[in-house]
Amino acid sequence: MIEIRGLAKSYGPRLAVGGIDLVVPRGRIFGLLGHNGAGKSTTIGCLLGHLFPDQGSIRVNGTDALADRRLALARVGAIFETPAFYEYLSGLRNLRIFAECTAPVPDSRLLEVARIVGLADRIHDRVGRYSHGMRQRLALAQALLPDPELLIVDEPTDGLDPEGIHEIRTLLLHLNREHALTILLSSHLLSEVELLCTDIAVMRQGRLLYSGPMSGLPRTEGWIILKTSPAGRANELLRAKGWLEEQRGEDRVRLRPGIGVADAVAVAVAAGLRVEAAHPIEMTLEEFYLQTVHGDHDA
Q1: Would you give the distance in Å from CA 24 to the centre of its chain?
Q2: Helix segments in 30-131, DSSP class H
Q3: Which terminal residue of the chain has fewer beta carbons within 10 Å of its beta carbon, N or C?
Q4: Residue 299's pLDDT is what?
Q5: Three-state DSSP class for residue 17
Q6: 236 lies in which domain range?
Q7: Edge-to-edge strand order for the sheet containing 76-79?
Q8: Tens digit of pLDDT for each residue in 254-290?
């Protein structure tokens, strides 16, 4: 859906994006991660035509977004930066004004997107009466007006309470699964990214450090869950063999390099212990992110 090659952008002497390559597969929920100043907003700004890159190419759905912006973005919806509405007008009137500024759509479409985002009962109310969560839903409705194939959202749950965060997350999952939208999501909430995204990219100081599926994140080196009965006896056996390097609690252990889960289980079974659980501990997104941005990785 998105193919970025060699994208670079500087603001005077400051490098914002330094020649990155980024591919967003069709049908995925793709999380773009990075600290403030990492280059996420500049990348999205170039993608949407708000900024013109110094070099590189951008293709959206197969169309060159730099040579033919109108065609490339015809089926793209976006919430970029803080959405603003006319407080004294209804949600419906706001949607109609925004549609008239781009590509007018019939009222039936306005009401349809209001229903999709859960605002059908309040779309005729003044926006000044909307909660923060309702405003986020209205912004999503606006982004859905062109019946997009690609939805770009920047911090969609910013400032929401836990219930509002859950509602927006559920809505984005619904849009991806039921409406086949590819979603590019920029967020600082790693817990939400972990629940939502199928793929991620990590940026730091304009460089792309990692890009790939969530399922491809590495496991925590050497650490496993080993739960046996009697509790703790397996750890004693592993320590006696010189295989146990570190222990946290009764069932979290780090094994010597070269020793795997199967080896640890074999020791426990040979001693007549009942093995209740045995598996590697997968690295959380937070652990992976912090390790990546503070490490010495290159794109």
Answers
A1: 11
A2: 40-48, 69-72, 91-101, 107-116
A3: C
A4: 40
A5: strand
A6: 219-282
A7: 76-79, 150-154, 182-186, 29-33, 199-204, 207-213
A8: 888 888 889 999 999 999 999 999 888 877 888 888 8
